[in-house]
Amino acid sequence: MDRQGISQDPASAFGAMDRMYRFQRYFYDATRKFYLLGRDRLLEEIQVFPGQNVLEAGCGTGRNLMILAGRHSDAQFFGLDASSVMLETAETKAAAKKLGNISFKVALADDFSYRETFGLAEPFDIIYFSYSISMIPPWRESIENALKNLRPGGLLYIVDFYDQKGLPIWFRWLLKRWLHLFKVEYPEMLLPYLEQLGSQCAGHIEITPLYGRYCLMVKLVKN
Fold this sequence. Notes:
This protein is α/β, with parallel strands linked by helices. It has a single domain, classed as Rossmann fold, CATH 3.40.50. 34% of the residues lie in helices and 23% in strands. The chain contains 8 helices and 7 strands, in the order H-H-H-E-H-E-H-E-E-H-E-H-H-E-E. It has helices at 13-21, 28-32, 39-45, 63-71, 84-96, 139-148, 169-180, 190-199, and strands at 53-57, 76-81, 102-106, 124-130, 150-161, 203-210, 215-222. A 7-stranded mixed sheet has the order 3-2-1-4-5-7-6, sandwiched between helices. Helix 6 links the parallel strand 4 (124-130) and strand 5 (150-161).
């Protein structure tokens, strides 16, 4: 994990994420499993073939990547995150599991390159966002950058919070208040933006609401 050339300014996105997760990283996985619903369904949906390169944008402690890497030892997995402390935890866990087919980089989702950031000769086969779009202010730019770094015919996946309109009002209110503490918010313009991508022939898009619209899963096949 190389932070050379990355700003150490505490006011930067990197500094903000390190402050947020400096201590949370130790219990992050144990707590998030109760409300980051749909992650395991996404991992079941993702089909990885031998020799493919798979990236998680906003990988946190690497929980999802380690599940996939354990299932597909003949593929390579990559994770990026703005928080170096989260990636320290991810690297420690990956080493403990003896997963040599994962590598991590400190980077922003809207500012990475398959070649310059990860040293790859070809774009990624699969890129996914698992509950990170709702934490990324430049989420449009992050999706656009992911598409730039995805090969034609490659797959882009998103699983994240939705509008919860199929759930009780009191639950929606409590969830919104809770997520606000962590600067998490469902971007209401996400679906119109994705539909626009489809109309602009960026790729074929499937959008699936889950669990009473608690969350949604998006699959885009790039043209």
